[in-house]
């Protein structure tokens, strides 16, 4: 079976995709039915989902506006007035701690003319003041100062109505901060489901919790954000080929890993919420950096986390929490794929470590992460090259008519009795298929803000 492509107009649009009964609020273009672009039953994906500008705009309104999105780590906010800025989709956001110690997140846009009220990446402040006309907001988002306020009509003016726009929901899990614009979104724990069990293998190794070190590394890549998110959720398959030279460099012999390591057994978890993680399984699973390996008491970890987590997702593996948050336990790397148009993403990456790690172990893990992942990492560069290569040719007319194959592992998903939820073999596209199935569901469902305006 192949995905049926719809004819293109001279402008490169496919009018057959447009449904007339779902319209974007505020008079924008009609919504696009993506049913013909995603065939998860047969493992086929239309690559228009990576290139079409209209689909990208619909993602902003339905996927990013409706989902729980990663903002940062609680360790970035130590006291009242601390803040950092980030994005939810393409919307700029301020994350701060108010005077009561509550973490809050606001749209970083002045209610007067729309400029950002904070242009710094992070810092500490008592108020957020727009440098355009001087409107100022407190840590709770309330408008507290308006130059020449007497010039506003007392019949129309109500300062209380012009505070910063706050996210609908904000929650934390294992030190990570998530938020959503969607007031109807299920609780964060419900969105995570069984995925939280796998996340705990990474972030609950220490009773004291985790900390972030080294700041945030940021870089821009050519490529659609979904290419990165799906790989981190589903794709161990590329490791031996794409990272062959890096594996040779890291191996003791310089010839690459032994066959039993290169072809390791493992499991891949996926769920209906689009989350996915894969990991090798071995009773002697260990951390790659020598000082980190020596630091851990694996017997104690089995007592804390259970053997299944220690022998699997605690160390080597990959994961994505839908839509655009990913992590790598063996490196202590967490990252978010910020969309910057259909052809570009901005990657933000943190190094997360257990709080109890002594300084020399922290340094070893941080340096190992930098050498392997990050803009200069020997693995990261391979990944970025792959995504950019895919994107660079996907606008070709003939290229953009050929469906992509996500058929590996179809029918193998099952409850294995060891790992929570549905798992398949490590070498599988199962999590990728469910990632795109969730994406398609959101793309074809009117979002909370559309329902409110109908």
Question: TL;DR?
Answer:
This protein has 14 helices and 23 strands.
List the topology elements.
Layout: E1 18-23, E2 30-32, E3 38-39, E4 44-45, H1 53-64, E5 69-73, E6 82-88, E7 91-97, E8 103-107, E9 122-124, E10 128-129, E11 136-137, E12 143-145, E13 169-173, E14 176-180, H2 188-192, H3 195-203, E15 210-222, H4 225-234, H5 239-242, H6 244-250, H7 259-262, E16 266-270, E17 276-280, H8 290-295, H9 298-305, H10 307-310, E18 318-321, E19 325-328, E20 333-339, E21 344-354, H11 359-372, H12 380-393, E22 404-405, E23 422-425, H13 430-443, H14 448-453
Describe the model.
GO terms for molecular function: 2 iron, 2 sulfur cluster binding; dioxygenase activity; iron ion binding; monooxygenase activity; oxidoreductase activity, acting on paired donors, with incorporation or reduction of molecular oxygen. Keywords: 2Fe-2S, Aromatic hydrocarbons catabolism, Dioxygenase, Iron, Iron-sulfur, Metal-binding, NAD, Oxidoreductase. Belongs to the bacterial ring-hydroxylating dioxygenase alpha subunit family. This is Aromatic ring-hydroxylating dioxygenase subunit alpha. InterPro entries: RHO_NdoB-like_C, Rieske_2Fe-2S, Rieske_2Fe-2S_sf, Ring_hydroxy_dOase_asu_C_dom, Rng_hydr_dOase-A. The protein is an alpha+beta fold and 454 residues long. It is globular and about 75 Å long. The chain has helices at residues 53-64, 188-192, 195-203, 225-234, 239-242, 244-250, 259-262, 290-295, 298-305, 307-310, 359-372, 380-393, 430-443, 448-453; strands at residues 18-23, 30-32, 38-39, 44-45, 69-73, 82-88, 91-97, 103-107, 122-124, 128-129, 136-137, 143-145, 169-173, 176-180, 210-222, 266-270, 276-280, 318-321, 325-328, 333-339, 344-354, 404-405, 422-425. A hairpin with a 2-residue loop joins β6 (82-88) and β7 (91-97). The protein starts with 17 loop residues before the first strand and ends with a helix. It is built from 14 helices and 23 strands. α4 (225-234) packs across α13. The chain is 26% helix and 25% strand. The chain has two domains: 69-172, Rieske Iron-sulfur Protein (3-layer Sandwich); 191-443, Naphthalene 1,2-dioxygenase Alpha Subunit, Chain A, domain 1 (Alpha-Beta Complex), CATH 3.90.380. The chain has an eight-stranded antiparallel sheet, with helices on both faces. It has a four-stranded antiparallel sheet with strand order 8-7-6-9, with no helix packed on it. The chain has a three-stranded antiparallel sheet with strand order 3-4-22, with helices on one face.
């Amino acid at each position: 079976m192949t995905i049926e492509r719809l004819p293109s107009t001279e402008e490169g649009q496919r009018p057959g995709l447009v449904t007339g009964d779902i319209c974007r609020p505020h008079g924008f273009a009609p919504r696009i039915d993506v049913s013909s672009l995603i065939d998860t039953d047969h493992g086929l994906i239309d690559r228009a989902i990576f290139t079409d500008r209209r689909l990208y705009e619909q993602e902003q309104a339905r996927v990013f506006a409706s989902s729980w999105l990663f903002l940062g780590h609680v360790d970035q906010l130590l006291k009242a007035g601390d803040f950092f800025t980030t994005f939810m989709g393409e919307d700029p956001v301020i994350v701060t701690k108010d005077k009561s110690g509550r973490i809050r997140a606001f749209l970083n846009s002045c209610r007067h003319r729309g400029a950002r009220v904070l242009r710094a990446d992070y810092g500490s402040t008592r108020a957020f003041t727009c440098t355009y006309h001087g409107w100022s907001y407190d840590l709770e988002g309330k408008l507290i100062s308006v130059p020449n306020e007497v010039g506003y009509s007392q019949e129309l003016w109500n300062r209380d109505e012009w505070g910063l726009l706050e996210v609908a929901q904000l929650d934390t899990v294992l030190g990570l901060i998530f938020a959503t614009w969607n007031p109807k979104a299920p609780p964060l724990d419900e969105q995570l489901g069984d995925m939280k069990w796998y996340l705990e293998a990474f972030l609950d190794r220490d009773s004291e919790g985790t900390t972030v070190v080294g700041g945030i590394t940021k870089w821009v890549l050519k490529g659609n954000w979904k290419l990165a998110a799906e790989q981190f959720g589903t794709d161990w398959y590329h490791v031996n080929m794409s990272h062959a030279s890096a594996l040779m460099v890291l191996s003791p012999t310089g010839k690459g890993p032994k066959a039993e390591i290169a072809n390791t057994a493992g499991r891949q978890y996926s769920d209906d919420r689009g989350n996915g993680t894969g990991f090798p399984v071995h009773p002697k699973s260990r951390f790659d950096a020598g000082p980190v390996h020596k630091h851990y008491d694996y017997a104690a970890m089995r007592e804390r986390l259970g053997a299944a987590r220690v022998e699997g997702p605690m160390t080597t593996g990959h994961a994505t929490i839908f839509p655009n948050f990913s992590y790598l336990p063996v490196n202590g790397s967490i990252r978010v794929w910020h969309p910057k148009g259909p052809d570009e993403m901005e990657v933000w990456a943190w190094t997360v470590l257990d709080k109890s790690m002594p300084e020399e172990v922290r340094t070893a893990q941080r340096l190992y992460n930098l050498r392997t992942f990050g803009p200069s990492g020997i693995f990261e560069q391979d990944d970025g090259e792959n995504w950019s290569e895919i994107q660079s040719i996907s606008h070709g007319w003939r290229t953009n008519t050929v469906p992509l194959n996500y058929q590996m592992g179809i029918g193998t998903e099952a409850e294995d009795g060891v790992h929570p939820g549905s798992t398949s073999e490590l070498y599988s596209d199962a999590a990728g298929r469910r990632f795109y199935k969730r994406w398609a569901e959101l793309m074809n469902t009117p979002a909370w803000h559309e329902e409110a305006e109908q």
